Amino acid sequence: MFTVGILTISDKGSRGEREDESGATIRQMLAGISAEVTQYEIIPDEKGEISGKLIEWADGERVDLILTTGGTGLAPRDVTPEATLAVIDRLAPGFAEAMRAESIRITPKGMLSRGIAGTLGKTLIINLPGSPKAVRECLEAIRPALPHAIEMLTGKGSECATNDN
Q1: Is 40 contained in some domain?
Q2: pTM of the predicted protein model
């Protein structure tokens, strides 16, 4: 079992002008992989607020995985990748590569996604797109690797165990 924070980044959503269907999609898709959502919030497309929440959840709330949704495109207010880059320790590019590859397979517009993935301490942070359809497609592409990635990052994986023999 690992813990998850879902951070929806949306100006309209944070003002209550739009229902968060993407956050709900993430929650549904995590149900089958022993993940417990312990944090959830909708915040505006503000770089400082996004970075601050990522740090709070990784350090203070100690979630194993943070999935952001929204703010990964080319619009002027899409700053989620920059906010994430400002706080991560290490990139984990395979997640973003797999998501973009899956998206491009479905639509050429998939190449417009700028989402990234990386680690902050022992927390894995992954930027997902904002639409429920794109969230479903991208999360489906990476979901099988998430439990093992969390095990490795937190030191619980068999490859991390010390050999006392």
Answers
A1: yes
A2: 0.94
